[in-house]
């Protein structure tokens, strides 16, 4: 039987007895698999390519080129290509030798149809997973440039990157909108690192993590003696970011009393330290981020409309992970590779079942939740990580005592707080309402190192 190409062929049968090819084609096609056969091993070699997503089923004893030689040629083309060998002689030594050389499996004639189907379907699943992981690796390598990177090829992420490209070299202030964990700081860093301001400071401040009585001095700075506890000049975030970019995360948390002063600084591009009458000129880009609808807050009187108009000259929306599910395998592999290097653990690619579970999950914590799953996957193994992270806490804890369950949740909460606060002990203490010593004791108990969480949001979109 002649063949032109293998584009739509899932199983290629090579046997010098034509009737074997005919029987196997019928078997595979009755079970939904596209198959083709040839009696010429050399024709098979000429058609196979490294990106062919199929399986070779070949007889061992053939004139001219035997199955072992065909196996060697297939391995030269692609070492991960599944090759199933058939023989009518039951030669165990040959079977062992073939498996050592890279054969996927070894079946005796006459073969059992169900067993044949099972072997080929498993081989096709493995082939599919291998090619998908290979594709993901290439995509990761294509993103291997210095600085933060926005990974993904979904329509929403492509639009996001295009929008960033349009405004990155302009001085316009930007408002980033996105749910918690979608990667708002990553987008802000991309705007800074790929702009003419990249050599100046990128300064990030979480407006919701600073007590109201301190946020004004944090933003604008203060002269010595401006108020109790200030015994030397404090340089504010605006001044420190001069020439660069100031990132105001959770801008919706800014007190109304401060919003008026913030608006004035944005309009005048000048700042005065508390306790001073001297204005400091600013050459700065302000990038604000919010996880809520600021227009709705304006309607409720909880956010100034004039400040919103000043901030959203350019608005960049970030899609939640549930709206870019095709990016999940790429992101998961990216985070797993980082965790593998960080924890010195071997990276084992997730199975098709695990990929399916990730594809169907709701991802309320977005990319941050996916990153945490990838880290647990590397540290704890697939079953424990997926049970703990994708709604299976009860399954994971079925063999735990009460104290073990308490420790499990305590560790998980501390890990999530450290991750959310990018390793900041102060912010983690405030979020968990723990004294510093208590937090450090618990981190030692669970072998948690804050360094593992520093700036780990730089790769999360």
UniProtKB/TrEMBL annotation:
Domain Sigma-54 factor interaction: 150-379
Keywords: ATP-binding, DNA-binding, Nucleotide-binding, Phosphoprotein, Transcription, Transcription regulation
UniProt signal peptide: none
Keyword DNA repair appears in the UniProt entry: no
Ranges of residues in domain Response regulatory: 10-124
Chain positions with 4-aspartylphosphate modification: 59
Protein name: Sigma-54-dependent Fis family transcriptional regulator
